[in-house]
User: What shape does this take?
Amino acid sequence: MKKFMSALFCIALTLIIGTNVVAKEIKNEQYYYNQGQDYEKKNNRLGATEPYSKALEINPEFDQARIARAQIYYFYGKYDKALEDFNYFYNKTPKYGPGAFYNERINCKKQLGQYTQAANDMYEVILIYGGQAKVLTELFDLVAQHPELSDTLCPLAHSDLLEKYKDKAKTIRDYAQMYKDKEGNITNEKYYNFFINIAKTMDPDICLDVEYPTEGPRKAPDEGQVTETTIEVK
Assistant: This one.
């Protein structure tokens, strides 16, 4: 009888230890990410940053957790912490890069008073997409509010970026032509000059033998925000 009870005790102890081991094993990055998602569903979004952070401690490459945390920081106005996460994606290429979450990243810099950095980010986004009227409008507005940033509108102030995206010269030149009508008259001089000056600085010969639009008045489309990530965040 004693042997039987002893055997049962050993089995029970083994099951308990085994259960604890399994419990420890499941507390991986996915476990904490799911916990954070559960917190958000229960309207405890700010509290969800803790499990997301634990997930990232285990696996710093767990992008879903970082995106979720960054968006919460951004929502609650914790722009310094949000920017740190968004900058991570800026430097993570080729999957993300400078085009990922650019709207949030730029706004964080504005909120933190980092106006020069915000202007430089806008300029890079314009180059990435070979012309971006919406972002240029925001850049013009920022310079109007902070005249000391007027030099950021000059292509020569961004020589490193022009070199980095020099393959966009023709695209930007063609984008500039969208501000000309069928007679070749400039319909929006401010925007045309900005884009054409970039193209000329990238390639001085870029405007030779250019075919102008032949179909009615045209203007740049009203682009919306564009990011390179395909991860869906709830």
